[in-house]
Write a structure and sequence with these properties.
single chain; about 325 residues; alpha+beta; 5-stranded antiparallel beta sheet; about 40% helix
Length: about 325
């Protein structure tokens, strides 16, 4: 029997080593870009899907999530998580509640299985997904059949029916309404990295004209509805602490340098595979140090007002508060 104190000490040592390894460069802090050698394969295998994302005018969003994986979002929800398994097949994870069919509808699960490889299909544990996902292994010549328009529309319909969340709808609106912005270019959603448990809703590049027409700085964006108790700075988990923690990390040289490398690669790769993102971003853009934060609050302003009054007194110059209202 190993004493509990020994187990705790070993766990703490392992945790410390993992943190040191991240800091010392054994692995990057953030890897939201593909392995460079698979770019042409992704472009060829998913041309049909990339074209659909481009035609959707922001309803479908393509985000790179690792060296061999990406996610297509619809209304803020994961429509499909896709990970390259080898050079001729992919593991595609779909949420079970989005696959399920209403009475009288064709069973989408059965239809999808027709285009998957049962001999090689991965489990959710292999792909790192929870048990509420079905994982299909699909060969590259069956990808278009598997993610054909009919199947994608079914997934979209189910997402609208079973996973309506106000905050996700607002996130989607912010994304689509800023696709052509030249001053605030959203480059990622659901941001987190390997060296911290801090998360942010959006990461954008904010134009810095005082440093030149091609200069930008990181902008961390948190979105909150007015009825969210995290707007109250007296709460232990409040939006000001959340965004302050992320901005402070991004303003350390080590973290800034890694994020800069990551998103320069990610932006270039998303352009290279044919996505029509970042049309307003200059070809020779520069990302400079000096990240800021932006707290966006919308809906339920009557409920939000007492918390906002407290929040305004505590906000520093590098964090901005923006209110989106429906006031006539």
């Amino acid at each position: 029997h190993i004493p509990a104190t020994v187990v705790i000490c070993v766990s703490m040592i392992e945790w410390a080593i993992a943190r040191l390894n991240v800091t010392w460069g054994s692995m990057p802090i953030i890897t939201r870009y593909f392995d460079q050698e698979i770019i042409s394969t992704i472009k060829k295998d998913f041309k049909f899907l990339i074209d659909a994302v481009n035609r959707s005018n922001g309803e479908l969003v393509f985000q790179i999530r690792g060296p061999k994986q990406f996610v297509v979002y619809y209304k803020g929800n994961s429509l499909a998580k896709i990970k390259m398994r080898d050079l001729d097949s992919y593991d595609i994870s779909l949420h079970k509640k989005f696959i399920s069919s209403k009475s009288g509808e064709e069973d989408l699960f059965i239809a999808l299985q027709n285009f998957a490889d049962p001999e090689r299909s991965a489990s959710s544990k292999e792909t790192g997904d929870k048990d509420d996902y079905h994982v299909f292994t699909v060969k590259n010549n069956d990808l278009h059949k598997f993610l054909q328009s009919k199947h994608v529309k079914h997934l979209q319909s189910r997402i609208k029916a079973v996973n309506y969340k106000e905050e996700l709808i607002v996130e989607q609106a912010i994304l689509s309404d800023n696709m052509d912005s030249a001053s605030h270019i959203i480059i990622d959603t659901e941001i987190c990295d390997h060296s911290s448990n801090k998360r942010a809703d959006f990461l954008a590049l904010e134009a810095s004209p005082e440093n030149g027409p091609d200069s930008f700085k990181f902008l961390v964006i948190e979105l909150k509805l007015g009825n969210n108790k995290e707007l109250n700075p007296l709460e232990s988990k409040n939006v000001l602490n959340q965004i302050r923690g992320y901005v402070d990390r991004l303003n350390t040289k080590e973290v800034f340098d890694e994020y800069k490398i990551c998103y320069e690669r990610s932006i270039a790769q998303r352009k290279a595979i044919g996505l029509n993102y970042f049309k307003t971003l200059p070809a020779d853009f520069k990302i400079l140090p000096g990240a800021r934060g932006l707290i966006v609050v919308t809906h339920y302003m009557g409920i939000a007002r007492p918390s906002l009054d407290k929040l305004k007194k505590l906000i520093s110059s590098d964090i901005e508060l923006k209110l989106i209202t429906y006031k006539l």
